[in-house]
Automatic annotation (TrEMBL):
Name of the protein in its database record: DUF4007 domain-containing protein
Pfam families noted in UniProt: DUF4007
Species whose genome carries this gene: Pantoea ananatis (strain LMG 20103)
Stretches assigned to the DUF4007 domain: 15-303
Entries under InterPro entries matching the protein: DUF4007
Amino acid sequence: MAAIMTDLDNIELHFSGHETFPLRNMWLKRVYDQADIHGLVDKSIFADESAIVRFGVGKNMVSSMKHWAIATGMLQEYKDSKYFELSMLAKLLFSDNGLDPYSENIATTWLLHWQLAGLFGSGAAHRTKSTTWVLLFNLFIATDFSNKDLLNIIRGFVSKNSNKNVSENTLKRDVEVCLKSYTVLMDKPKFDDVSEPVLAELGLIRPTLPGRFGFVRGKQETLPDGIFDYCLITFWLSNENYQNAISLNDICHAKGSPGLIFKMDEDAVAERLFNIAERTQGKINWVNTSGMYQVIRKMGKKENTFFELAIDRLKSSYNA
């Protein structure tokens, strides 16, 4: 039976823009490659007469590519409204000598999932483009659900939290694209690998019965420690309630937490945290204080220093 935990505060709602296409391999790189030497992307290139030739896909797919580049936080608004600018993460990942320019490492896929479904990814505005992803992974606690179950909960959330008039068809299409993004089509032709949704590789959602789905919870063994640590630190930095310590319970269950977004149970999260001191050279430690498990940071309070640690941990996921 479908279930919802609690409301999200102040989230802006957005349920369109993908033109019903899930994110596909190499799309973000193609967008990245349109930037000039200053890291700026002219917005007109997505709509001019050369767009189809430039990106090698149809008109609707070009619009979808732009949508996903924004939704994942790879493109962000620039002071000159005629342009987008590449984000720090986009440059880190997709430059020709970047960490993963051709998205060959599953670490990148986990990171993109965090960008879409989490609350604390790079760039505060990006999450408004993937509301269904945010609601599904932060609020939905059903072990088994259908498209209709998810649609009903999102419809109720919109009714309660927004004055926007969102059409039923728009919500339905967004739910379908979200679920399609994480599930592999069993009858897909073998030659059609290029069209497989990027996020399906993670195996976070699986068909259970005809027309029904379930989360795959557990250790998430393909999730690199470096990506987990990066997400933990960005979650930590983005919540003013956390100073020098954060509890295991919050890392597992708080809205936007790695435990929720990656569908990891407490044992799986605790196992990740057990040797975090070794991974961070003692800058973050796993402790038991009066029976309460938590992680504490043993470093200065400057946010930029802590974020530098997050970037170092992210980079470690790509080291040979």
